[in-house]
Amino acid sequence: MNYLVTGGTGFIGSAVVRMLLKQGHSVRVLDDNSRGALRRLQDVAGDIEFMERDIRDGAGVEEACRRVDAVCHLAYINGTEYFYSQPALVLEVGVKGMLNVLDGCRKAGVGELHLMSSSEVYQTPPLIPTPETVPLVVPDPLEARYSYGGGKIISELLAINYGRQDFSRVTIVRPHNVFGPDMGFQHVIPQFVQRMRASDEPVFPIQGSGQETRSFIEIEDFAEGMRIVLERGEHLQIYHLGNDQETSVAEVARLVANSLNREIEIQPGSLLPGSTLRRCPDISKMRALGFQPRIPLADGIDRYVKWYMMRA
Length: 312
Ligand SMILES: NC(=O)c1ccc[n+]([C@@H]2O[C@H](COP(=O)([O-])OP(=O)(O)OC[C@H]3O[C@@H](n4cnc5c(N)ncnc54)[C@H](O)[C@@H]3O)[C@@H](O)[C@H]2O)c1
Prior knowledge:
Number of helices: 10
Radius of gyration: 19 Å
CATH architecture of the largest domain: 3-Layer(aba) Sandwich
CATH class of the largest domain: Alpha Beta
Strand order of the largest sheet: 3-2-1-4-5-6-11
Structural class: alpha/beta
Shape: globular
Distance between the termini: 39 Å
Oligomer: single chain
Strand content: 15-25%
Largest sheet: 7 strands, parallel
Bound molecules: nicotinamide-adenine-dinucleotide
CATH superfamily of the largest domain: NAD(P)-binding Rossmann-like Domain
Order of helices and strands: EHEEHEHHEHEEHEEEHEEHEHH
């Protein structure tokens, strides 16, 4: 098949591109490289078509949709600091981008669309592990952080409701804390590695009590999950793509320290406004499609640390 991957030079996008090529598909990538980088696709540069375009440019997106069979839409402003510092931009890229992708697909006759949403659509999930059916919420429109989750909720609504009338297959994937080599530095694991490398001080301050939890999926497991969604995901279905091994932030810090052969003493601090205390996906729907995460967090962190040390 011919795929368009928006956000394809990003951390997850580049893994999706590689997975598609491995499956024998043709891939076109649209990205403005604001956070993405062609370096991530260097080894497959000859196998892809790259279009440097802004997802907010309707004509550019329409051109990128021509002669493709399916679109994986990942272009979005990611990175927690931007949710606080550039909330209007987060929404503009999210909402205009989504509308442009839908219009581009409709004009070019593309019948298949796969949207990358986020676990942030729940903010504080009322149930752990969280199934796909719990309500999506924006707890306070005045809190800048919710620009990210709010934009994803709007994107989902647009994809589903346009999908119902104009597409043969629309799926929505909600990733839960994907990590791996070259993920960028605005995430908890790379920040812990950077900070422990920068100082030998055993006292290690963290945000929150350390008992807050996240569930991390390694990028190779994630790409395999995406393969399964693209192959078997059903029209207008939403899938949690993650690992249901729930880990405290303190444990993440300890795993990073182990990997770096360091002893640390965790010092609790305050949480950023809008932060969630626990996150763990119920992945039964993905399991029913045949998905099984295979890489334990400790192994993934080791792989990440090795990658980091080779570049430090
Ligand atoms: N990393 C995670 O754990 C995680 C979790 C939940 C959801 N997601 C979602 O998955 C997708 C990919 O995330 P990622 O971690 O690879 O982040 P990323 O920042 O590496 O990738 C996003 C890509 O979108 C591109 N982009 C941004 N603005 C653009 C614009 N105006 N026009 C064209 N391209 C633009 C960036 O250059 C980047 O390559 C995003 O939609 C993100 O919201 C990621």
